[in-house]
């Protein structure tokens, strides 16, 4: 790595570490030192930012890293940087802009820091990272634990190759390998800590198999309407037991194809049935992350989407089920206190039941909910103060 370039970046590296410490994302000195000494710009040589171009099209605009001050300031922001687009959906619209769906990113640094702190890694711990991505998180783990203890897997061989080169450039060589991270690390070894920087609908069996009693898992569980980061400890019975963390997740979903996401089947939507008043509005749902997570417990097979009316242009929040049932509430206009639905009327009634319960118990945050993945693969969540419980489908149903 070019020493003068690194020297120019050091003030930005230190500033990012200080910012994350002041925000409470970094809580211990070892991780503060790691963020202050690992150059993010090496791992993000290019990225895409969303904007509306002069034709009114929403595009991903490409940016390239340099050691100029404005570029360094951009790279060392506490912001997720999209680094790859799905080639099946990407279409170039001008010299430096594309449409498409993101498939890889350099994660929000405060989110990374919160997850690494929740991992509670100590000297001598062997760590498995699911989702190598750019390699930045692996570099942070190496800085904290040593390269010989860090293992990482990613579905995309090209990403792994690029990450390996960047890691070599900064002087570390962890054990990287391409493969389906939901199947664990190919060697079959066990690990003291497992961290996933992609979302999964349920904790995979392979991660449990490669754990030992006391192994800590930090992962993003996507439940359809919403998902959340869980911190789980594996016990002697191969149960993974813990709770949702105060840090929210929303990672890109784990995929089985190296470059693209498989298209989701879409059922035919039920015809419109009725419109009626409701006690829970679209803004109630959009504005309260813990409530959306609770709603996912109630409706684990449902999906959350934004809907735009073809005629009026009104934007609404829509819940929809695999059987074609749907219900939507407008975000703007004169009818925000109403819901329109088709198919099963009970879909939005479930949302109203969850809203009343959440308000009755004092609007608890997500870290008041426990999560357990049983040895047989089943999972459930519960409200920690009183044990109110919701069972989740064994497959982790939902559309992550």
TrEMBL record:
<comment type="similarity">
    <text>Belongs to the methyltransferase superfamily. L-isoaspartyl/D-aspartyl protein methyltransferase family.</text>
</comment>
<dbReference type="InterPro" id="IPR000682">
    <property type="entry name" value="PCMT"/>
</dbReference>
<keyword id="KW-0963">Cytoplasm</keyword>
<protein>
    <recommendedName>
        <fullName>Protein-L-isoaspartate O-methyltransferase</fullName>
        <ecNumber>2.1.1.77</ecNumber>
    </recommendedName>
</protein>
<dbReference type="InterPro" id="IPR029063">
    <property type="entry name" value="SAM-dependent_MTases_sf"/>
</dbReference>
<dbReference type="Pfam" id="PF01135">
    <property type="entry name" value="PCMT"/>
</dbReference>
<keyword id="KW-0808">Transferase</keyword>
<keyword id="KW-0949">S-adenosyl-L-methionine</keyword>
<keyword id="KW-0489">Methyltransferase</keyword>
């Amino acid at each position: 790595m070019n020493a003068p370039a690194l020297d120019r970046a050091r003030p930005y590296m230190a500033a990012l570490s200080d910012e994350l410490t002041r925000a409470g994302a970094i809580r211990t000195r070892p991780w503060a030192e790691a963020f202050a000494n690992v150059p993010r710009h090496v791992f993000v040589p290019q990225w895409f930012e969303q904007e509306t171009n002069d034709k009114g099209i929403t595009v991903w605009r490409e940016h390239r890293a340099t050691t100029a001050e404005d570029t360094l300031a951009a790279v060392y922001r506490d912001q997720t940087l999209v680094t790859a687009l799905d080639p099946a959906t990407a279409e170039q619209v001008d010299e430096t802009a594309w449409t498409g769906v993101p498939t890889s990113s350099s994660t929000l640094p405060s989110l990374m820091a919160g997850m690494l702190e929740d991992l509670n890694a100590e000297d001598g711990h062997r760590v498995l990272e699911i989702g190598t991505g750019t390699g930045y998180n692996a570099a942070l783990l190496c800085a904290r634990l040593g390269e010989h203890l860090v293992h990482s897997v990613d579905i995309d061989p090209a990403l792994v190759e690029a990450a390996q080169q960047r890691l070599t450039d900064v002087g570390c060589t962890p054990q990287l390998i391409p493969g389906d991270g939901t199947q664990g690390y190919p060697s079959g070894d066990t690990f003291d800590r497992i961290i996933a920087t992609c979302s999964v609908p349920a904790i995979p069996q392979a991660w449990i198999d490669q754990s030992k009693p006391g192994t800590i898992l930090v992962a993003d569980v996507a439940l359809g309407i919403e998902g959340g980061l869980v911190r789980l400890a594996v016990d002697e019975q191969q149960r993974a037991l813990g709770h949702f963390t105060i840090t929210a997740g929303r990672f890109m979903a784990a995929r089985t194809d190296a470059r693209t996401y498989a298209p989701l089947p879409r059922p035919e939507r039920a015809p419109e049935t009725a419109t009626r008043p409701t006690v829970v509005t679209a803004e109630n749902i959009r504005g309260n992350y813990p409530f959306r997570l609770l709603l996912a417990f109630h409706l684990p097979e449902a999906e959350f989407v934004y809907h735009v009316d073809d005629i009026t242009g009104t934007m609404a929040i829509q819940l929809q089920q695999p059987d074609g049932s749907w219900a939507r509430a407008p975000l703007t206009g004169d009818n925000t206190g109403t819901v329109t639905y088709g198919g099963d009327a009970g879909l939005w009634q479930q949302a109203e039941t969850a809203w009343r319960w959440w308000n009755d118990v004092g609007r608890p945050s997500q870290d008041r909910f426990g999560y357990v993945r049983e040895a047989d693969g089943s999972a459930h969540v519960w409200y920690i103060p009183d044990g109110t419980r919701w069972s989740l489908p064994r497959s982790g149903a939902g559309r992550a």
